[in-house]
Amino acid sequence: MAKCWERRGCDDDMQSHCAHAIEFKDNCPTKCVFANCDRSTHEISMDPEKIFSITVDRQAAIRDICTLCEFFLTNGPKVA
User: Positive or negative, the Cα torsion across 31, 23, 4, 68?
Assistant: First the structure.
């Protein structure tokens, strides 16, 4: 089962013509309305130690908003 940070917020039809999802395989930018997270676990972290931690694998997050999320920073994958 995919983790929340591994899923885009848009449906398959939108992904079929979204430059971030298809052409460039980029992260969903925070300005994208579909990149918003509606999970109850989503909370923007204010802890600089977590935000700037070198142990967090930010490459695993498909949405930029996840890289600031307390849940992702705490429970997401770590760099080996």
Answer: negative
Structure tokens given for 78: 């770590």
Q: Tell whether the torsion through CA atoms of 63, 65, 67 and 69 is positive or negative.
A: negative
For residue 9, which of 29, 36, 30 has the smallest C-alpha distance? 36
Query: For every one of its 80 residues, what pLDDT tens digit does the chain have, with 9 covering 90 and above?
Result: 779 999 888 888 888 888 888 766 788 998 888 888 989 999 999 999 999 999 999 999 999 999 999 999 999 999 98
**Domain residue spans of the chain:** 28-80
Q: Which residues pair with 63 in a beta bridge?
A: 28
